[in-house]
UniProtKB/TrEMBL annotation:
Organism superkingdom: Bacteria
Name listed for the protein in its UniProt record: Membrane protein YhdT
Transmembrane segment boundaries: 18-37, 57-80
Any Pfam family the entry gives: DUF997
Entry annotated with the keyword Ribonucleoprotein: no
Keywords recorded for this protein, A-Z: Membrane, Transmembrane, Transmembrane helix
PANTHER family, per database record: INNER MEMBRANE PROTEIN, INNER MEMBRANE PROTEIN-RELATED
InterPro entries per record: DUF997 (IPR010398)
Length: 91
């Protein structure tokens, strides 16, 4: 069973796509953490504001959301493959 899964190209594709998803989650966390604690670690009196939001919040949460949505779109459109997991593997 395990050898069959190792040779099945569907599982290889699924493994690569899972690793891309994990990489995207790690990128999202690093983006959020970097802006939130990088810009947000100053005293409140030194904060700058964008659209009424502290800049650390704006970059970490608002801009980060759109960056990650764009990356997910690119990943789904160009890197993920449509694989039939219901059918039997031929070969």
């Amino acid at each position: 069973m395990e050898d069959q899964q190792r040779d099945d190209p569907r599982f290889i594709i699924a493994k690569h796509e899972a690793l891309m998803g994990i990489a995207l989650v790690i990128f999202n966390f690093l983006w959020w953490f970097g802006f939130a604690y990088g810009l947000g670690s100053k005293p409140v009196s030194e904060y700058s504001y964008i659209l009424g939001l502290p800049s650390w919040f704006f970059y970490s949460c608002v801009v980060g959301l759109f960056v990650v949505i764009g990356l997910v779109f690119i990943m789904v459109k160009f890197f993920l493959k449509d694989v039939d997991f219901d059918g039997e593997h031929e070969g």
